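agent> Task received from the user: take the single chain below, predict its 3D structure, and emit structure tokens. No templates, no multimer pairing.
agent> Plan: (1) validate residues, (2) run structure prediction, (3) serialize to tokens, (4) report one or two observations.
agent> Step 1 OK, no nonstandard residues flagged.
tool_call: predict_structure(input=
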Amino acid sequence: MGTDHAPLPDWNTLAALDDEALPLLPGLLLIARDEYPDLDPRPYEARVQAHAEHLRAEVGSIDQVPLQMAAINRHLFEELGYSGNHDEYYDPRNSYLNQVLDRRLGNPISLAMVQMEVARRLGIPLDGVSFPGHFLVRLPVDGGLLVMDPFNGGRPLAVEELRERARPHLGQTPDDSVLLQILNPAPHRAILVRVLRNLHGVYAEAAQWDRAARSADRVLKLVPEQAEALRDRGLAYLELDYLPGARQDLARYLELSPEAEDAAGVRERLVDAARTRSALH
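)
tool_result: status=success, residues=281
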């Protein structure tokens, strides 16, 4: 061992914090340390700070918040070259913040994290939005909201485009009140969970079941008893032939979500696992 890691909170400490106290950047780097055990958070924290310091004088000389935000976006997306990884959207590196800062390439949520961390260091209250489909960011301006797409250079989105984007996920075009509800700021815990669920999806698709189980396990640290994460970890355990863990997780999932659409399928997997187990003895 012997690596002198800068302190990151451990998972139990992080999980015990209230949403308001949950630190975003250390949480994201903690997720990354699962995959990169030698990760030292200090250079990454310093890089985010350097991005902000580079902008401080320019942003300080601008009066209007939307123009301050435009300056931040120009620096991040045009001068530094941060961009959405359109070619390899499901590359897991797009979800690990150390890789995003190194490669300047990410998915919507990881690029939003860079935007938010830089903006907040400059006193600009940029929040994340768990929008259906792609993660977005929002900024209160003049009694309204400026909503931007970090995956596409921080481009501002008009109300009509937001409605269009939401419609396929909701089955109907949202009215103003529904749209405003969808645009509520995402708490830090929900953001970390969404990053982990993205990773779970990528790893499950690639049949990397140890990593899929790990991602679901981390969700359960942050949100104990979350039904989908119990199911996801249980199914990954099944693939890894860890039957006691699989049985416990899947049985709990069925207790919590007996009416879930996939409940019958999960029940079958559970019965098959028990049968296989008894046949082995």
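agent> Step 4: summary for the user.
The CA atoms of residues 77 and 90 lie 21 Å apart.
agent> Done.
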